[in-house]
Sequence to fold (251 residues):
Amino acid sequence: MTTENDRLLLNAYIDGELDPMHALEFERRLAETPALAAEQARIEALRAAMRERLPREAASPALRRRVAGLARPVAAHWSGGRGWGANWGAMAASIAVAFMVGSGATFLAIRPDGGATELLVASHMRSLMASQPIDVASSDRHTVKPWFNGKLPQSPRVVDLAAQGFPLAGGRIDVIGLTPAPTLVYRARQHVISLTALPASRFAAAPVRAVDGYNVVEWTDGPLTYWAVSDVAAAELESFAKAFRAGEAVP
Fold:
């Protein structure tokens, strides 16, 4: 039997609007409810048919000109008692462009020489607030690992840590220091662990510390440096890091 709440959650799940915890819970509900799984297949087939047969609406020339006009650099101006200010229309257009280009990935506009630890904590916090904290939601490492292939120069190790109490929830692509980076998402009870892999040559090791209430653990494996960020206790995050390093990865 399915309920109205099931149908609402199904649409949120298909749209990628559920957080990692609720997405995994709903996946279990799907596996246990054939009628709900059939409804998922029907909706996804309908969406696929609409994408295939219905033309996509293109932005009108007038809209393109308006956006281009807002995005043009405008000199700073004096705002009386508020001091120097920028053109807010241009700023809004820039933000809109960043979201369109990001296409669901976490995007941080930062200085290239910014501290990696702070950037990774900010990325983790933003993912928790986003409507789509995971680009590919799956507890199967054989699904998550291939998803990164072809999207990035290097894909991370993907280890099954469910037996150690850290089940895989999925993965996403973040942008750290203007560098696209794969991020694996694991769970620790009701907590989320973001594990991001960055080129070791560009992001040097930094002293591990807590930032804004989040703990960070870092280690280097070959050409990649892995950074684990979570609000779990430091000792538990260290246990996760040790289990990941010792685990068998997907080839």
Remarks:
- Residues 4-53 form one domain.
- Residues 74-114 have pLDDT under 50 and may be disordered.
- The first helix runs from residue 4 to 14.
- The beta strands are 77-78, 84-85, 106-107, 136-137, 168-176, 179-188, 191-199, 215-221, 224-230.
